[in-house]
Amino acid sequence: MDLDDIKAKAQALSPWAHFATVGADGKPDVVPVHPCWEGDVLWTMAGTTSVKARNIAANPNVALHWQVTEAGDGVEIWGTATVHADLETKRRLWNGVFDYDLNAFAPGGPDGSPDTCFIAVHPERALYLATYGMGGSFRWQRGGNS
C-alpha cells in the first residue's frame, strides 16, 4: 500500500478526521477537522492561537483518525506538523486546495484574516484497517512498508 492508496481510502471514508496533538504539559487534545491534501501534505485550517497551533509549537508529532464506516473500515495517519501563518501560504491554499469555502470561517480572506493559519501534516506512517482489521490491516511508512 502506498500513500496514494491511503489518501484514497481516507477520502472515501469521510471529509472529517479526528486530529490529535499533545501539548507542552504532555496532555493530549483531539478535535474534529476537515483536512485536504495538496500532494503528499495534509492541510487543515486553524486559528493562530488555537490549542492545535499551540500544541504543535510544543510537540510537532500528531495523528489523524478518519471516522470509521459502518463496515468498520478506518484510516489513521501519524506524522509531524508545522504551522503556517504567512500570507504567501495562506493565499496559495485559500482557493483550490480545500473542498469547502474557507471564507465561511474567515470572511476576511487570506489578506484580512490575521488570526487564521494552516497546519501542514507530513505523514510518516499510516494504517488502513478493513472491517476493523478482520478484512486485513495495510500499512504504509515513508521510505518503505513495514
TrEMBL record:
InterPro entries xrefs: F420H2_bilvrd_red/Heme_oxyg, Pyridox_Oxase_N, Split_barrel_FMN-bd
CC terms in the record's Gene Ontology section: cytosol
Keyword Oxidoreductase: yes
Domain annotation Pyridoxamine 5'-phosphate oxidase N-terminal: ranges: 17-128
Source species of the chain: freshwater metagenome
Pfam family, one: PNPOx_N
Keyword Oxidoreductase appears in the UniProt entry: yes
The protein's name: Unannotated protein
UniProt KW keywords: Oxidoreductase
